[in-house]
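Predict the 3D structure for this chain.
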Amino acid sequence: MPISFVPMECIDEAYGMISETRETTISQTKGYTRFEENDLLWAKITPCMQNGKSAIARHLKNGLGCGSTEYYVMRPKSNNTLIDYIYIVLRHKRLLKAAQSSFGGSAGQQRVSSQYLKSIMVPHPDFSIQKEIVDTVYNMKYKAKQLQKEGNALLEEAKQKIEKMIIGYNYGKVRRNNI
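Done. Predicted structure below.
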């Protein structure tokens, strides 16, 4: 059965989302971390963890996926906790900074311990407040992405205008200087 394959490089660290999924089969998942639709993938290895490589697994082929062994996979134990809320908490800069103090392993391959992750005290507001926080953060992320898209379009337009001004200029009327 085909399923989604999500290696570490397919998680966008800026926006904390899966930017691309690849395909594999269940029979080829040996040695990979397995997860399901709506599970939270959180990078445990440096520098991915500090850079915010985490995402909620959504739109998985057949609702299943696998990926890096360097993910912690999380899902709420009850229906009164939004995975999106946990995701927002675990992407918070202060938490990521504090997680560095729990690193273990060699200098080049340091990881956040599972004990540290289990020790994090996540505030648990009412479901409606969690939803409000999630909606606010996601709306702000959406606006940020839109502004970035608009900024990139303006930059490209400016580059094209400048190029046209330089290349499209009638040099026949102007004396050329050697540069």
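Residues 42 and 126 are 24 Å apart (CA to CA).
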